[in-house]
Amino acid sequence: MSVAESGLMGQQKSERSYSTGHLLVRLLGLAFRYRRACVVVTVMHGVLVLLNLATLGLTGLGIDFLQSQALHGSAPRWPAGIAPPSGWSPLQVVLALSGAVLAGALASAGVKYAAAIASAALSQRVLLQLRTDIYARLQRLSFRFYDSGQSSSIINRAAGDANNVRAFLDGVLIRMLTVVLTLVLYFVYMLQVHVGLTLACLASTPLLWVGSVLFSRAVQPAYLRASELGDAMVRTLVENLQGMQVVKAFARTAEQAVKFQAANESIRSLKFSIFQRMSTFQPLMGLLTQLNMLILIGYGGRLVIQGELSLGSGLFVFAGLLQEFAAQVAHITGIVNSVQSSLASAGRVFEVLDEPEEIRESGTPVRVRGVRDSLEFRGVSFGYVPDQPVLEDISLKLRAGECVAITGPTGSGKSTLLMLLKRFYDPTGGEILLDGRPLPDLCLADVRAAAGLVFQDSFLFSSTIAENIAFGAPEADREAVERAARSASAHEFISRLPAGYDSPVGEHGANLSGGQRQRLALARALIMQPSVLLLDDATSAVDPETELEIRQAIERVMRGRTTILVSTRFSTLCQADRVVVLQSGRITADGTPEQLLERSTWFRRLAELQSGAADPAGADTGESGAPKTLSLTELRGSVSAGSRRRAA
Ligand code: ADP
Ligand code: MG
Q1: Is the dihedral of CA 461, 467, 469, 475 positive or negative?
Q2: Are 289 and 211 a contacting pair, CB within 8 Å?
Q3: How far does residue 415's CA lie from ligand 2's centre (Å)?
Q4: Region (Disordered) spans which residues (predicted)?
Q5: Residues 34, 126: contact at Cβ < 8 Å?
Q6: Is the pTM of this model over 0.90?
């Protein structure tokens, strides 16, 4: 199996190439897991074939009997010597035969029903299992996998491709077994009626095989392409839904609609061309089998006239069998079609299932409950893509309970640093130690639970406020939810909502303001009572009033917790015990806010731009037109004003 190098990660085009043989073996392996159900359905289809043969044979007998009565021909050859009692009138015999045909038809209908139900039950079970497997795997995949921007493709794989894979069971395997079984049984039956006629009628069969192979080659590449186009279509749809505001704001609705239509159109034309090929092929195959009828009438007719073949059990039954043969052969086209679509989809599904889990814990993970002593980055380097380092040689040690702020220009790697602590990614060099133990030695769930992370832009689920807050602790009661909300300064605005804690949160929190979402996210992190709090620019997107509220909330919740606070707000930075300046992935300064005024020009500039201004939080780094030059003493004054709480 070709794994890591050709994986999905970091690649635009991502087909891990599986050989057809490999895919078939794995699909058969899947079928083997459901072998009992497969066998049951196949046997039912076998019974159906036998019932078909029986009713056809009985009808033939009826014709032979009538012929012997009406035209004084020879008496029919009763099968296995079971003749009707000699006392029966011809009418009674005919009625008995018709009754038997009817019984056969009824039984056939019953078995057909049972087979359809069993087959549907099987395929739904397989589909459920496949989707569950894909979902489970997605939960364990690293962020690296998602960074390659394949979420639309994944949606398509879990929805469409999984369905095509399960079609391998009922649409290919079982149908193929049924067709083979049918053809063999028919063949044996025909041989037993007349060997010469059978061979003459079926002489063209090898041509069917050649035709199927040709058809299969013609549609194979098209199916893979169809799934890829499906990805593109889902992507356009998903991005439009998520970016609806932008689309509308920039008045691009019409263009986006055209784009979506184009994506749909390419799928339509491809599917249509597959359908066209199938539609040419199917009648051709049908035609071939119908030619056999000519042979039957000519050669078979002669045999009847010569008295070598009976009209009913011979010619009539043969005609029926040839018709059935043609129908079964027509199925082969469908099967070949399904095989190709199943194989193309199987490659895409197995690709997800085989994607390696990047973040692993050691064989004997150590359980931890938060930070007792220290949290340390030791010479940590990291890059999302090889050869493009985002963090270089970061060494930083936090004592338990300390609050360290990280600041620096956009793109300097601040958020990345927090992600490494959560083990969303692992460093490419150096290590991160929790109480002296490297993170990979610790239980992953414990590491993640130990650190509460509030993102810059927090994702909320479309459920109620209370459920969103209790996301990480579903067993939390209302009291705990409220406590967390109070700590996050969210209780007040929640109480003002019409349904309070039971108010619905729109998709992605659409009906809440940025500051409200931010405080909900804070409450959601707090309810887990994390010993480490990671706040990523929690005050970047809010108005000064809200910023103050959030800052107060943060101050409250920081107590007793080890906190890493990412921010470019001077006022927020002053709350920290220590500030670290990160520039282009390297630590360029480290110290108390006061010390940094002298040590870091970047921090000094930030302080100048943001303190002493009329609007305390209005001027952000780099965007102010007229920076105010303040003396160091004045700046020190604003630092200590900001960090009052530390003295308390
Ligand atoms: P900051 O939070 O300091 O603004 P980030 O840590 O978000 O910076 O990003 C640091 C660098 O890493 C940036 O150059 C950014 O383009 C890059 N980066 C961030 N996330 C990813 C990602 N998922 N894949 C690839 N590159 C990324
Ligand atoms: Mg960031």
Answers
A1: negative
A2: no
A3: 4
A4: 612-648
A5: yes
A6: no
Place of tokens 């887990």: 528
Q: What is the pLDDT of residue 630?
A: 65
Q: Which residues contact 385 (CB under 8 A, 6 or more apart)?
A: 10
User: What DSSP letter does each residue of 369-408 carry, written as one string?
Assistant: -S-SSEEEEEEEEE-SBTTB-SEEEEEEEEETT-EEEEE-
Task: Ligand 1, residue 417: give the atom nearest the CA.
Answer: 6
Residue bearing the CA closest to ligand 1, atom 5? 413
Q: Which domain holds residue 163?
A: 21-353
209-261, pLDDT tens digit by residue? 787 778 777 777 888 788 888 888 888 888 888 788 788 888 888 888 888 89
Measured in Å, residue 415 CA sits from the centre of ligand 1 at 7
Nearest to 607 by CA among 577, 579, 583: 579
CA of 497 to the centre of ligand 2 (A): 31
pLDDT above 50: residue 273: yes
CB 392 within 8 A of CB 585: yes
468/490 Cα distance (integer angstroms): 13
Clarify whether residues 57 and 143 are in a common domain: yes
Number of domains in the chain: 2
Boundary (domain end) residue, out of 327, 353, 379: 353
pLDDT band at residue 279 under the 50/70/90 scheme? confident
Position 629 pLDDT exceeds 50? yes
Considering every ligand atom shown, identify the ligand nearest to the alpha carbon of residue 389 and give its number. Answer: 1
Q: Is the residue at 388 inside a domain? A: no
Ramachandran assignment for 309, one of left (phi > 0), alpha (psi -120 to 50 degrees), beta (any other): beta
Contact 320, 56 (CB under 8 A): yes
Q: Give me the phi and psi of 112, to 5 degrees please.
A: -60, -45
